[in-house]
Amino acid sequence: MTSILTYTFKNLPNTSKWALQFSVRPLSCSSQLRAAPAAQTKSKKTLAKPNMRNIVVVDGVRIPFLQSGTSYKDLMPHDLARAALSGLLHRTNVPKDIVDYIIFGTVIQEVKTSNVAREAALGAGFSDKTPAHTVTMACISANQAMTTGIGLIASGQSDVIVAGGVELMSDVPIRHSRKMRKMMLELNKAKTLGQRLSLFSKFRLNFLAPELPAVAEFSTSETMGHSADRLAAAFAVSRQDQDEYALRSHSLAKKAQDEGLLSDVVPFKVPGKDTVTKDNGIRPSSLEQMAKLKPAFIKPYGTVTAANSSFLTDGASAMLIMAEEKALAMGYKPKAYLRDFVYVSQDPKDQLLLGPTYATPKVLEKAGLTMNDIDAFEFHEAFSGQILANFKAMDSDWFAQNYMGRKTKVGSPPLEKFNNWGGSLSLGHPFGATGCRLVMAAANRLRKEGGQYGLVAACAAGGQGHAMIVEAYPK
Amino acid sequence: MARSQRQLGTGVLVRQYIGHLAGARLRQKSPPHGSPHLSAFHFRPLQLKMVASRAIGSLSRATASRMLRCPGYICRSFSGTSALRTRTHINYGVKGDVAVVRINSPNSKVNTLNKELQSEFMEVMNEIWASDQIRSAVLISSKPGCFIAGADINMIASCKTPEEVTKLSQEGQRMFEKLEKSTKPVVAAISGACLGGGLELAISCQYRIATKDRKTVLGTPEVLLGILPGAGGTQRLPKMVGVPAAFDMMLTGRNIRADRAKKMGLVDQLVEPLGPGLKPPEERTIEYLEEVAVTFAKGLSDKKISIKRDKGLVEKLTSYAMSIPFVRQQIYKKVEEKVRKQTKGLYPAPLKIIDVVKTGIEQGSDAGYLSESQKFAELTMTKESKALIGLYHGQVLCKKNKFGAPQKEAKHLAILGAGLMGAGIAQVSVDKGLKTILKDATLAGLGRGQQQVFKGLNDKVKKKALTSFERDSIFSNLTGQLDYQGFEKADMVIEAVFEDLSLKHRVLKEVEAVIPDHCIFASNTSALPINEIAAVSKRPEKVIGMHYFSPVDKMQLLEIITTEKTSKDTTASAVAVGLKQGKVIIVVKDGPGFYTTRCLAPMMSEVLRILQEGVEPKKLDSLTTSFGFPVGAATLVDEVGVDVAKHVSEDLGKAFGERFGGGSVELLKQMVSRGFLGRKSGKGFYIYQEGVKSKNVNSDMDGILASLKVPPKSDVSSDEDIQYRLVTRFVNEAVMCLQEGILATPTEGDIGAVFGLGFPPCLGGPFRFVDLYGAQKIVDRLRKYEAAYGTQFSPCQLLIDHASSPNKKFFQ
């Protein structure tokens, strides 16, 4: 009898989710309706699910995000990742040997350290018995690292996970051309002098032309900035609106930095250089200054400029994720629960950067929440134009009906709850590391500002997207 | 530097011309295994497809609601009363100090320059020029996919005298000259087809902005209709893009995509097409184009933007070279030589174009304009132009499905036999999004077929018509297999196995055991009667013939053959699939040889006779090509395959008896027994060697020809007689097909003959030829040859009817 009662009780919050869906789709399971609680300001008390382990973030850190080509330029990616891991160890005091698994996200791979998670973990002094792997999903690689960890904990494979991400844009692998590589490989196999000479005779000067890592979408050959400019035009987002949004991002970031709100940043003593303590891309300018810039992608009349785009960044982040009972047993006071998440994907040509628009209603529906329930929005800012286009798309019934197969729009997030401590435009965007920054910003904001739910969303190359609900851990 | 040489060298631009006009390209190497088809010619008849019909096609998708879009600002009436007058083709509004002139012809999917549009346009422009508040203008179409598709052909056709046409041309010239001299900058915002008169309008503006999408093409297709750009185009184009490029455009009539146009200097800016936003993409893209154009119009009137274009080094060198009279003369000479060689003097338009351009450059623009309008008028009166315009109209008709929409749209295709034909059909299907199964009996055969499809797509990647990613995603529509797995989902099965009735019967039965009830069985055969194939079918109403021509991806024609039992829905579905594959379609009744093969057979019989009479193969080839056929008659036999020709000759000979007599099939039989099968075996009338371009006559044929020699009849063996012996037999048989009801309309007869068999496009097809040449003259010739040779030359009744009443025409 007691068990039944407990079950019903546990099930209560969950039913409201059904009720919510019911209002949208009148035909779905009417029996659920009776259990729906009366209307309240928050749809739910907590997003805990029956028979599912609660997963918590104990804490997360990042080394300062720097514009590429600055203090980190002589390092390698695993150096940055190692610094983030050391910072995490220092911050949380977690015993290294209790970590079951380490996962890192990265995008542009350093060929020597293709499993950068493993190299960084070994270097940071983690047990050589702790396995580590590296994931990649463009700008949501770190999100993928976190959710991979969630999967391992939820399925009972692991209890303690370190997830993170790293990107070093100061150095990228530039390859020999395919022709040159082919010749070099054949040369390797050539046994006699004659064979070698005949191979050399095939050499042409154009073999020496280097091959840069792709800056363009593979499927469409379009650069992301170009696509962002077209997206902004499609949603009729003006240059001025974009500049204003970028200025907002920089101003808020500056304020947060000055007020010491960016508590996830850990100092990094760069070998041979000074200790880096702060992000260096935050530069609030004036609208007049920004208006002077020429379009960077669609010339001469486009709207996306260097000032309203995120810049190339070096950085790394890391996060300690645990099953709730494990964290409590170890005496931790977790910062937040990691709740429902979704991945979405859409047309990589014309909707490359609309991931948040697709992911937001889906994750809210999954969690049984509405936009009103969210206290802190943390969206990845690839471009001002991309954020504003997403706002317009989220606020359009026409778009929802014609492209997302939904009856109504989800609504755009209120600006006063949106990226209040700056975003990728100002803090920087090391591709593989941004995901953890977003989640930690949401968690820290909820603690600081006193809300319950945070929504993290991001777009990624390939026309993919991600969203996750972060719930504040009760104080 | 490759491009620079291309710009400078006139040779290349004329080479383009080959493909379009005379264009016989014999590039197929020995056909690998697969069904040998009589239709394996490698003709490239006149490619009319790029004319406005493409714009029409692309527009059919745009819904009416999108056309009635509401402008994003208030349309103000400008100069009081006159603006209140309702205009039907043009309306305009003002954004700030920029007038936005919108072209939108009523009740049509395309904008065409006709008299009303022109007069409304001038009216609007006069208001704009008169207004103090307007400082610049943007010219844009409200129809997605079409700026202006060209001048109204009927407007020109309705003129009775050359003087009328000259006047028409001069009106156009004056209008565009006024536009060119406008003190207020005019920006043409081009999205969709900008062809012919539309291009002439655009190049008269001060600035051009084009949408960079596939629908946006610029070109001067007039030459394909046997005329020339008659509203200043011949004078302005050379100044804008340079003489060599202008010749290339005007002599080939080819479409130029927006990005290429930008490089050539034909447009000044490109606008990227937009994806979905708060409105449908096409609608928002046009709006965006307008916004960008307005910005540029403002910039031009404020003198912030210059209309001068930075020329590249190559362009500067070219224009420097062109400033030397000697160089110019050499270029005219070279271009003219090549054109003469390629057209054999059969097409007057290209030569006149060269002449008019030359006049403009050498004697000044007044002389140039005058020459342009006069030559334009002369050309519109020529038989060649009438023939080509007839073909254009015919082609538009044959791009429609007169059987209506099929009950079920065919989405899943299965093709049996991965030979040259089967793989070709697969190639034109997968790139249109049809899920296609390609089945063959052997792994080797299948692999060859798959490679053919891949190569076809990859060649497009090399030409930058596709990206490698698009290629891969298109190629994934193809499934290659050896069994019948997945046939239960097929909506249509097209068999392209060997031309052998018992084999066709076997596959038909096998297929019918696995396909669903609604699935159509189509046979790609060139001569086997469909009703004989359908004889073993459980559901003959679902059996139809689809006769493709080789190479399938190049040849535009599809001949669809219906039997008495074929249902209307089956026909509708086959036509729908064919149209989707981009084909020009004729639908004919079943019978030995259908229409195309049947017309060709008597002509082939005459070819044999002529060879037996001692005419050299080379001589015969030159006689046929100088008449306008893209491939010489002897070469044609080699290309088709001597064994196939023999097979068809025997079959049709049995069916039609004496009328198909003349030459001796024995000639073909002996060639087959000696292994001279034509190109595929390396020897036929000619010797074919890998990598050797020039053909040598196969001297081993001398013995065979000598043993079958018949004495020529001197009164019917002049060069002209030889040509007419061939052509009149072709034409007589075509008319007979109409008489017997094999053909439904003369239009389809002309389209089939030109696009499938390479009948001289300048003659417009056998039926147009009868109309223009005169039925009586043809009957007279036939009677003369009948007297010499016998009944194979007896004119058919319908032809005699036309001869006896001169008012009777196939085309009114």
Write a brief caption for the model.
The complex is a heterodimer of chains A (475) and B (812). By secondary structure, chain A is an alpha+beta fold.
The total number of structural domains of chain B is 3
Number of helices of chain A: 15
- State the end-to-end CA separation of chain A: 32 Å
How many helices of chain B? The count is 35
Rg of chain B, alpha carbons:
28 Å
- Please indicate the percent range of residues of chain B in DSSP E strands (runs of 2 or more): 5-15%
Number of distinct beta strands of chain B:
22
- The strand order across the widest sheet of chain B is 15-14-13-16-17-18-19-20
Task: Give the overall pLDDT of chain A as a whole number.
Answer: 91
Uncertain regions of chain A: pLDDT < 50 for 5+ in a row?
1-40
> Tell me about the biggest sheet of chain A?
10 strands, mixed
* Share of helix of chain A, binned: 25-40%
CATH level-1 class of chain A: Alpha Beta
CATH class of the largest domain in chain B: Alpha Beta
CATH superfamily label of the largest domain in chain B: 2-enoyl-CoA Hydratase, Chain A, domain 1
What structural class do helix, strand and pairing data of chain B support? alpha/beta
How many separate domains of chain A? 1
- CATH-assigned fold name of chain A: Peroxisomal Thiolase, Chain A, domain 1
Backbone shape of chain A: globular
Task: Give the terminus-to-terminus CA distance of chain B.
Answer: 52 Å
CATH fold-level assignment of the largest domain in chain B: 2-enoyl-CoA Hydratase, Chain A, domain 1
GO molecular function (chain A): acetyl-CoA C-acetyltransferase activity; acetyl-CoA C-myristoyltransferase activity; lncRNA binding
GO biological process, one term (chain A): fatty acid beta-oxidation
EC number (chain A): 2.3.1.155, 2.3.1.16
Protein name (chain A): Trifunctional enzyme subunit beta, mitochondrial
